[in-house]
Structure formats: structure tokens, C-alpha cells
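Q: I'm building a small set of examples for a reading group on sequence design. Run inverse folding on the following structure and report the sequence directly after it, with nothing in between.
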């Protein structure tokens, strides 16, 4: 309904929604609106300084600094713990939007909350854009639908890999007794090139990386998964990634990049850092003319087994001896 103004003695009054308001009342209402806007802005800023959000943003920065995120390539998600949910609760919006159905339900994450990057955002801009590049989604009681409860400003939406992230979080949660809660995807050039050359299987991918340097098996004693070329953001990629995640903490996506998981941002980053370096060593050895048999002998079976035995790691020897 439009506003009708009429002059009165010493002031003005306006009629809005059938009610007459004086100048003072109008000023108070405007002030409250301004305060509300400021409070909401402060709340968003405060949420971004929570330790787990700051660590997530720092992870994106560290990966971007290494050149692992071209344009808007890459994404990440964090399955919130009860402590993290409690810390975030004061910053959540009072009126969540409607539910959006998932292509494939994730009953293992029913009623849970997940911090996730927005579609189309640059990972090196998370710190600058904050809630415009990330947000929190909440799953319904069956794990069949999601809705945003924080962030995703300016009509932003979660990454197109959302269903895949949720399926991987569910799979890794089951595989680790709920300890693994972070999924991160990036595009290191070395890993993309390595995936093209090493061979289309988890066995081939793993053996090359294990034999590249002794550090690799310490971080992925279970091996590294492999998913063939599939459409990014597709349900096929989501399902294949979840199947690999049931066994492996990290998976190479053919001609696409690397997916890593961990209990924390630091754990996932260390795995990516080691795997990318191992891939670069493998590529350097091949470019220098080292043959497959020479390369296989670089870190022998007994050394790989000895490392895992010494550190008490569950070595997946079945991946050796192609």
C-alpha cells in the first residue's frame, strides 16, 4: 500500500498499512532497521572468525597459493561437529529457506549441517568475500533434502558437487567411525598429468605414488583411489567418488584433479601436499628417461611394509605387484 503524507502542526504524519505514524516513530523505526542491518553484518563477520571457519578459509588460501585452483576450479565442505554447530548457532538466520531435494539421499547425514563453498566462486576469494563464497546447509530428517541456514549471499548457491560431497562425507564417516569430516577438491597440474600417465586404476595410481618417495605411504597407507573421466557435478561422479571414499582417503579424478578427505583441514592439506609432490617426482623421473622397472625399485616393497609396520599403519599390500 502506498504512503499518504499530510501536513500537521509542527511535524508530519504518514499513513502506512492503515496506521498513522508520527515523525518520531518513523525515525525510531528507521533506526531499528539500520541497527538490524548492522547486527546482521556483524553476525556474518563474527561467524567467519570462528576457528573452524577460519581454518577452512585458510586451507583454500594455501591451496590457491600453490596454483591448485584456476578460475573457479575446486570446492570444499566440512561436516560440522556438535561443538561447531553450537558455536555457529547464534549466527544462523531466523528464517531458513525452502528445502531442495538431493538427487541421491544421504541418510547418514540426516539433520546434520555442512559448511560448503559456493558455486562459481574463486577459492582464493573466500577470505575477501566471506559469506558470498560459502555457507552452511542443513539436511532434513531423512537426509533427502537441504536448505541454506547461513551465508550464500547475493543469490549464491552451494557448489554443483554438493551431492557428491555429501555422499563422500557419509562414506568416509562410516569408514572412519565419524572421524573424517572434511572433503576438499583441487586441480594440481602435476596430479592431473600424473593421472593421465600412471594408469586407469587405484593399483596403478597408488603404486607410482608410493614408490615416488617414502613419505607417501605414511599419509595414505590404504592407497589412493581412481575415478575415470566423468562429468563434473554429475550424479555418476558423486557415486563413483563415494565408492572410492569407502576405502581411500584421497582419490584422483581423471583429467580433473584430486579429492582429499580428513578429520581436519590440516590433515587433508598434508595428504594433498604429499601426493602432489610425489606425482611431481614421478613425472620428473619419467621425463628424465627412467623406465618403469627402474622406477619400481626406487622404494621397494619391504621398505613400504617396514614403514607401515614401524608406524603401526594398516598397509594395503594388495595394491602392489601389478
Amino acid at each position: 500500500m502506498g504512503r499518504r503524507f499530510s501536513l500537521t502542526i509542527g511535524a508530519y504524519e504518514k499513513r502506512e498499512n492503515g496506521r498513522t505514524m508520527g515523525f518520531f516513530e518513523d525515525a525510531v523505526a528507521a533506526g531499528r532497521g539500520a541497527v538490524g542491518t548492522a547486527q546482521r553484518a556483524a553476525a556474518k563477520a563474527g561467524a567467519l572468525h570462528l576457528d573452524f571457519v577460519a581454518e577452512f578459509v585458510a586451507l583454500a588460501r594455501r591451496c590457491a597459493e600453490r596454483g591448485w585452483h584456476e578460475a573457479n576450479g575446486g570446492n570444499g565442505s566440512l561436516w560440522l561437529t556438535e561443538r561447531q554447530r553450537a558455536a555457529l548457532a547464534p549466527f544462523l538466520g531466523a528464517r531458513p529457506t525452502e528445502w531442495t531435494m538431493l538427487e541421491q539421499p544421504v541418510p547418514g547425514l540426516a539433520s546434520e549441517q555442512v559448511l560448503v563453498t559456493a558455486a562459481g566462486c574463486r577459492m582464493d576469494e573466500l577470505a575477501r568475500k566471506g559469506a558470498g563464497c560459502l555457507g552452511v546447509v542443513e539436511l532434513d530428517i531423512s537426509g533427502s533434502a537441504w536448505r541454506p541456514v547461513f551465508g550464500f549471499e547475493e543469490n549464491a548457491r552451494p557448489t554443483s558437487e554438493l551431492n557428491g560431497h555429501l555422499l563422500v562425507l557419509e562414506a568416509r564417516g562410516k569408514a572412519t567411525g565419524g572421524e573424517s569430516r572434511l572433503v576438499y577438491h583441487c586441480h594440481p597440474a602435476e596430479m592431473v598429468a600424473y593421472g593421465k600417465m600412471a594408469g586407469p586404476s587405484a593399483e596403478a595410481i597408488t603404486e607410482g605414488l608410493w614408490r615416488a618417495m617414502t613419505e607417501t605411504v605414511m599419509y595414505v597407507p590404504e592407497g589412493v583411489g581412481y575415478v575415470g573421466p566423468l562429468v563434473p557435478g554429475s550424479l555418476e561422479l558423486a557415486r563413483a567418488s563415494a565408492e572410492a571414499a569407502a576405502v581411500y582417503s584421497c582419490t584422483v579424478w581423471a583429467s580433473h584433479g584430486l579429492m582429499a578427505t580428513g578429520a581436519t583441514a590440516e590433515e587433508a592439506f598434508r595428504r594433498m601436499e604429499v601426493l602432489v609432490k610425489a606425482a611431481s617426482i614421478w613425472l620428473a623421473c619419467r621425463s628424465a628417461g627412467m623406465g618403469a622397472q627402474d622406477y619400481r625399485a626406487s622404494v621397494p616393497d619391504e621398505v613400504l611394509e617396514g614403514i607401515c609396520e614401524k608406524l603401526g599403519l594398516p598397509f594395503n599390500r594388495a595394491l602392489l605387484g601389478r
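Residues 214 and 303 are 8 Å apart (CA to CA).
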